[in-house]
Amino acid sequence: MLPDADMERLLREIFAPFDAEFAYAVDEVTVTVPRERIAEACRVAKEHPRLRMDYLRCLAVTEYDDRYQVVYMLYSIALGHKAMLKADAPKDDPVIPSVVSVWSGADWHEREGAELFGVTFSGHPKLEHLLLFDEFDGKYPLRKDYPFEETSEWSAETHPQWETPGDGR
Amino acid sequence: MIGFFKSLAVTLQSMLRKPVTVQYPGEHLPMSPRYLGFPGLLWDDAVDEPACTGCLVCARYCPTDCITVSMKDNPLHKEGKSKRRKIVDDFQIRMERCILCGICVEVCNFEAIAMTDYHEEADISRGDLIATKEDLFRMGRDYQKRAGIVVGAGSGSEGEE
Amino acid sequence: MVAEADLQTVDMLLNMGPQHPSTHGVFRIVLTIDGERIVDAEPHIGYLHRGTEKLCERENYRQIITLFDRLDYVANFNNELVFVMAAEKLMGLEVPERAQFIRVILAELNRISSHMLFYGAFGTDIGVLATPFMYGFRERERIQQLFEAVTGARMMHSYFRVGGVADDLPDGFTAHTRALLDELKRGVQECDRLLTYNEIFLERTVNVGAITGEEAIDFGVSGPVLRASGVPMDVRVAEPYLVYDRFDYEIPLGKNGDCWDRFWVRIEEMRQSIAIVEQALAMMPEGPFQAPVAKFGFVRPPRGDTYARAENPRGDFGVYLVSQGENTPYRVKIRGPSFCNLMALKRMTVGHYIADAVVILGSLDIVLGEVDR
Amino acid sequence: MTWADVGWLVLSVGLFLGFISFVVLFLTYAERKFIGRIQQRLGPMRTGPFGLLQPVADAIKLLSKEDLVPGRADRFLFWIAPLIVFVPAIVIWVSIPFTRDIVIENLELGIFFVLAVMGLSIAGILMAGWSSFNKYAMLGAVRAAAQLISYELPLLVAVLGVVMIAGSLDLQVIVAEQNTVWYIVLQPVAFLLFFTAGLAEVGRTPFDIPMAESELIGGPFVEYSGMHWSMFFMAEYANTFAIAVLTTLLFLGGWRGPAPATGWGQDVMMAFWFLTKASAVILVIFWIRATIPRLRIDQLMSLAWKVLLPLAFANLVMTAFYLFYGWPDWSIVLLSLGLLMATVYGYYVRRRSRLPRPVTVKLRVRQGRIVG
User: Fold this and answer.
1) Residues D87 and D117 in one domain
2) Which homologous superfamily does the CATH classification assign to the domain defined by C52-337?
3) Domain count, chain D
4) ipTM score
5) Is residue B65 within 8 angstroms of chain A, CB to CB?
6) How many C-beta atoms lie closer than 10 Å to residue D62's C-beta?
7) What is the pTM of this model?
8) Residues of C in contact with A26 (CB under 8 A)
9) Is-cis flag, bond preceding C18, omega within 30?
10) CB contact under 8 A, D39 and B14
């Protein structure tokens, strides 16, 4: 486990060719990488002998006013390092390369991000609905423009579109 | 085979022990004094009026929006008997939605609401699960009597019980 | 004679869940089976999706604690802990020591109660008629009575606050807990003896659903499931939080990463948790239980983002919190350990029998509230 | 056959049916109470004193429930399957003696008849599974067929050992032959085999694989409800009781008490001892049910074909030698015990090769650091 300043130096050294920006998220270093190169950067982080960040703690999508940001929280079980990788995607073209080939564990996180935020993870083997039902199309509930519905009790009258089709058998 | 017979021995042993069942409707487990039951409204016995001024703070901070409150001018205030300018007019809690988190009690500035130990308020229709002002005072005053809570006369102080 | 290859056979699709007694909630897995053997498994989740992350963007920091209670609804304290830790991290808040010890004690007791639930459910999955279930619940009940004495609620406590805990411990807490720990020791011992080395239990669990350490890390598996594969990753040691760096305990590690190892790791963890609680009780200082923060815990952390995580009974529970300096978070991403462990389910089940699928699912110890959020 | 004979037959059959129904109802109560106590619960307590009326309440509930038939089920088979399971479970009681005198019709091929008729229920279970139009039911039915047929063999071969010593298939004779020494002493291997295979035959834990509540949600019976389901249920308990009764008759000396019963009360005493022994066996079955996990289908099959059947044959051959050469009694006891120990040893050898005893480590943490 390196102190943060040393960690930043190490990351600066390793991610120098990536045109990256560095910052802090309280106690860990964040590395913002251009989105085209994020998969590559993740592979470097995983396989570089001085990082060996083999454990994907979390993968989160966040919507900001002008962009979608995908955050990869990484951790090295062998060395105890931690760091965040970040990649931004513009709102009009929310596409980010998938990292499933780097960590299998990114699978459902990416599917979740895709269905809740509408961010397309290109190269993902199966970008289908995960948490929502299949009919929930074209809307992305975690976007800021998706309204909070007024709380109302569920009934067939208030939500006729959610009546399940059935043959009555 | 040893593990097999060990398992049988464990079950035989526990069969010889006393059952731990508590036959619920007949007997109750002791309840903790901090038990979070349904919220109830407290009564200011000194002035003989509700301690609640209908200030709406609980309704605003309720995570599930289960509280509905309205207030009115306090007639007793005009007569000079009470310090409360406003008093609760109507108060409803939708019990089916209440999650018993206790936030309303924490935010109340007048010690007017408390988590009672009422917990057996099941009913057969949704309409019956809406606790009216009368229900809330019934629970609250009963609890107040049993727990010995005295609401200061129109003090508006912030004290934790 | 007709050779088997000449027979026209088709694989059968077997839909397990969402209404199935062994899916631990509303989980659905579509198994493609060839006879009794599983050829393919496709998990479907989301039946309990309540939009917690969206709700978190509307509620304030005090209210969100109630939402976190309902994620992993058998490890409520641990969930609350991670959220308040994330907020405290953003605010740079120093939590009083007494509060930290209270949190440790409650979180570890919650771990025991959660593992007891696992024990019961796993025993039922494996086919004992509810006896482990009853034993597990007997112990759980004792712990919940202690929780009720402390927080007033048996499950949905909403007791931790940003900067501390809601209230000081009640009188007689130490004596009550010590008595409880003695009973728990006996209870864990009994549970251990009932199943762990039973021959049929061994036959059913050893070498079933094995996953190697590398694969487990690749899938982001954490907690007892990861440690059963022999990877020494425990957040309590890897990224020490609270006062976990003051205790002496042991981390049980498995070797094969099979169902038996996961079971054993959890049984041992209960013993270690008891040891931690004992030490914490002895070391607990007097003092304030709440740092001075905004009234009622309606805090406004400064702009920024942070990731906090802690060792939940099920594994590495994380919260990614983005604040814009308002009284509600800007974005909360919850990383449920069950969610990530479940991703490895397909890898574990394929090639085993239907009966094993149930056992493997049970050994992952998922809680759907946290998977679907 | 005179009218009196017919009348007697109808009366006795009616009495027996009533008795069996009563036993089944009581068994459900006893099981719930007993397992409740094992789990440190009280068991049923609400209906009547100590919940004694619970089986009655259950019966009323089941009778008043709607008898659902799945939409695409094969209605005729679905309807008739419970009968095919239920009837053999009752018919076997015709030739099972309770005492020397209390028996409807003692058959010379008694045990043969009982085991043959018991085997019929497989057809009903298969029909139930097939006609339910449900994959779980079908899987359960196929499992049941595989299991029941596999366990018929060790069951029969184990009984053969007893039959050879007794020299008769007549249950009366078998009990009479246990005059000096119970067959559990002479045939311990056969006893264990019979008990194990019997458990599997009636699908009790650890062999409840066809029903497997946690996997197949009840197997062949998953679509049944109300009266039809309760017929399966009664058949299961009647069969459980039958296995306990047969164990008593074949191995535990039947109705023999500590002192030979004489005089006018002898039938009562015999019935008492008989039922006491049968209840003890039943309690062991319940005890095992509350303690032991379920086997997996492949383990179940390999247990039947690789362990129980060879053991049964070994026991048969051993018994044949014993009888043919007229060896003393203690020799077969020793031989049987040796056989059992060899089996247990073989199990441990196999476990050492196939199931390595799980290796586990603990890392010590001191002050937040792993120290080894």
Assistant:
1) yes
2) Cytochrome-c3 Hydrogenase, chain B (1.10.645.10)
3) 2
4) 0.85
5) yes
6) 18
7) 0.88
8) 89-90, 92, 304-306
9) yes
10) yes
